[in-house]
Amino acid sequence: MNRPLGYALLTLALAATVAANLVAELDPDSGWPTVATVPGDVIVSKVLLAVAVLAGTYGLYVLVQQVLVRPMVSKRRAHDARNVFRLVLGSLAIVGLLGVLTEQWLGVLFSLGIVGFAVTFALQQPLFSLLGWLYITIKRPYQVGDRVQIGEASGDVLEVDFLVTTLWEINGDLVTTNQPSGRVVTLPNSTVLSAEVFNYSWEELPYVWNELPVQVAYETDLEFARQELRTVAEEYLGEEMERNVARYRELLDETPVELEVRSGPTVNVSQEESWVTLRVRYLVHTRRSQRVKNELYERVLARFNEHPNRVSFPVSRNR
Question: What b/e sequence results for 242-273 when a residue is b if at least 16 CB atoms lie within 10 Å of its CB, and e otherwise?
Fold first, then answer.
């Protein structure tokens, strides 16, 4: 779809409207054939008006599409605006078509109200999904591009349509490392009305807290190991984590929640049956969590192996 097509459709709509008015002003006794007791000029006029409605609404949609795909417009906002615009134009097109064909505008609106009331009982599930779409559009528990978990399904949101949400699956039954499985999951929008929604890449802060566990033997100098683990994490994560933590604190200040959040990584110690687990906690972008964890683990092992006299691993023990 492009701008010339949109202008061409609007021109066609204008031309069809003018032609319909000209046909309506012709002398009814000018020799128009009659089809099922309906004068031919009336049929032609109504067809032209129907063409005008369809061409006009679609041409307007094409032109608005060109505005929404501009680089300065957020893809997420454009997706939502496009869906709303499609719904509005589609509704107007239906009302317009029925109106020009029946010439009973009030009757059309009344009939649509009755039909909508009947559809409420006949198609409850699609209706709930449409209500779910309205909830998603207004409350924004997630939007296109977010990484979410809805019920038991996890993935990146590809599309939010009127009735369904499409996810590019993460993890699932095939992989376990926060990587795409290659499958596409389709969920009815009504799911958000009855299931938990976890958003891991919220627009205000697309970062999550991660933990990397490292197991060491009881003979390890725990204070030294903790300090080395914290140092490695600080060197790798650097100032990026400080900036993200600052934003995290700003968001916390806007809520009644009171939490102490440190600027850098922290290390917690937990005692196990045959070893001690050191867990370094850090803030990371949700889509880089596994990559950061892999790199950080390699750096930690290399640093610990430089000090075999102070850090030992629980070798030959049940782990």
Answer: eebbeebeeeeeeeeeeeeeebebbbeeeeee
Q: Identity (one letter) of the amino acid at 133?
A: W
Give 228-266 pLDDT, tens digit per residue: 999 999 999 988 898 888 888 888 888 887 778 888 899
The beta strands (E) that lie in 19-135 are given as 34-35, 38-39
State which amino acid sits at residue 26.
L
- Edge-to-edge strand ranges of the sheet holding 276-285: 207-216, 276-285, 266-271
Closest by CA to 124, choosing from 193, 185, 197, is: 193
Decide: helix, strand or coil at residue 274. coil
Hey, what are 51's tokens? Answer: 């063409």
The residue assigned the tokens 């004068």 is 39
Quote the pTM value.
Answer: 0.62
- For every residue of 43-65, DSSP letters joined together read HHHHHHHHHHHHHHHHHHHHHHH
Residue 88 pLDDT: 74
Question: What number of residues does the chain have?
Answer: 319
Phi, psi of 312 (to 5 degrees): -130, 155
| Residue at 37: amino acid letter | T
CA–CA–CA angle 292, 149, 159 (5° rounding): 100
The values of phi and psi at residue 288, to 5°, are -110, 15
Q: Do the beta carbons of residue 143 and residue 161 sit within 8 Å?
A: no
Do 233 and 242 form a contact (C-beta atoms < 8 A)?
no
